[in-house]
Amino acid sequence: MVTSVIEQNMSEPIIRTKMVTAENFATQKTITDCGEFGTIVFDEPVPHGGTGEGPSPLQGILCALCACESVTFNRTATEMGFEYEKLSFSAEYKIDIRGRLGMRGVTQHFKIVRLEIHVKTNETAERLEEIVTETELRCPVYNLIQNAGVDISCHWVRV
Questions:
Q1: How far apart are CA 152 and CA 150, in angstroms?
Q2: pTM
Q3: Which of 98, 96, 136 minimizes the C-alpha distance to 112?
Q4: Residues 23 and 30: beta-carbon distance below 8 Å
Q5: Using alpha carbons only, what angle is made at residue 12 by residues 11 and 13, rounded to the nearest 5 degrees?
Q6: In the chain, what are the domains?
Q7: Which positions of the chain have pLDDT values less than 70?
C-alpha cells in the first residue's frame, strides 16, 4: 500500500473555468445550454413583451442566489460538523425599471434583495450563526450582488 500526502498551495489562484452557450431568435426569450446539465429558458412575462415561457433573467439571478447560498451552506455545515435537515428560501428583489428603459443615472440592476431562509435543525442558534457568517463570506453569488452595491440582506430563521 502506498500513501502520499500533499499540501495544496493556497497562495496561488486556483482557477476553474465553466462555460454555457445561449441563443436568442430576436425575441425576449433566450435559451441557455448548460451542457451536461441541460437547458434553461429565460423570458419576460407576456405584459413585458415576452412569451412567459421561463423566468426573467433577474429572477434567474435570484434563483442562482438561493442555490448558491444552499450549496455554500451545505459545504460549510459539513466542514464545521453542523447538522440540518432542510433549507427553505423566500427571495425578492426591487428594481427601478427606469434604468432598464434607458434613463441615464438610474441603476439597471437590483436596488434591494431580501432573502428569508428557514433552517430546519436541532443545532443551537449560536451554532447556526457561525455557519451563516461563514456562508455569507464564502458565497460567490451573494458577494457578487453585494459587491455591486446592492442593498442585500438575509434573514436566517432556525425552525
A1: 6
A2: 0.89
A3: 96
A4: yes
A5: 125
A6: 20-54 (no CATH), 56-158 (3.30.300.20)
A7: 1
